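Repro:
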Amino acid sequence: MKELMDFVRELSFVRVGGSPEEKKAGELIMEEVNRTAEDVGRDDVRGEYMTFKVPAADVKRCSVEAGGRQIACVPFLRSGNINRECELLYLDEASEIDFSGIGDLEGKAVLLNRLDEEVYKRLLEHKASAFLVMQGKYYFSEKDASLYPRRIRENFTRHGMIPGFAITAGDALWIVQEEVNKVSLVLEQENTEPESRNISAVIEGTDLKEESIVLTAHYDSVPVGTGSWDNATGAVALLSIFRHFAANPARRTLRFVWCGSEELGLLGSKAYVEQKKELLEKTVFCFNFDMCGTALGANKICVTGEKELQTFVEQYCKMAGYSAIIGVGVHSSDSAPFCDNEIPALGLSRETSTAELHTIHDLVPALSEKAMGRNVEFAVRIIGDVANAAVIPVKKGMPEERRKELDKYFHREDEKKKAEK
């Protein structure tokens, strides 16, 4: 296999879920998987594609005009269409207090600091015609603000549809300071469903092969930067781990999954869980790799499972001499759909405040071959010990606190409350 950072560089290009670029990245990973299997003489191991559809949109027109100026903007995909002039309101935090006494917002667009589901529901209740969300700092240029189209998620649109735009904080500041109260909005888009793919490979266990451990990393990126840290590093780390276990099979079966379209809402891991339901009962553990290898920063492990898993990881790191920040909760990455099916998980990563993800600054220079190597070395060690254990050191299942957190993460709170009534 190539040096870790050489392959990270090779994967460092925009590769949005469902795009030709994501397909190209998947082909590079597939080639490496099959080349690795051949190199170690494993005729029984081959990569496979798993396809699934992703919700997207083809944008024909998108523009915002305010105060006689064209404002740089991008659309919220699948948020609907609009072509009209609207009154413009700025509602600070768009809190319940901000909306009190405001009345009907038909024919009005609302400028927001942020958008969450509660704010979106208030916009719908007051019949707002559109919304604009600011992004970045007031001194950021359009490029620095890293504006890019984002899909409005289904947990929003299940309540209704409102056309939405993102603009820079600099333009939002100008609009508010100049007291601009009219805005002309144009958004024309058509829903599409391009195809995305997972790449999977299975290394069958020796004497405990009926039990499986799943190992995941996403290989898609957002539309800005090169996705080097998030998550070319994780995809390459998983390839290196795959190479080790292809040559040194564990007692339990290892199922490797390079997930597509994670940035669009964990769509690849959700598709895997949906299409491979028959495997979940015998899947006893999940390791996920999402961002590693930064030269500066600290290792991090996200624990999702029973208390005993946290204790196990804390003691294991001491024995291994591996310094890591250990957090407990639902990792917002591809392990979450497995945890939602009672499979305990560890999310292995390396974080830093000196680099950025989901911006134009997610680039190669923040990364290090040495740091990548340390992350992979630890991962191989802990995966091997778990996969070769006489008994898996932690049981399946989620404590009540994690279960509630998963319900919140997957936007099932309202459904649960209704069921309880």
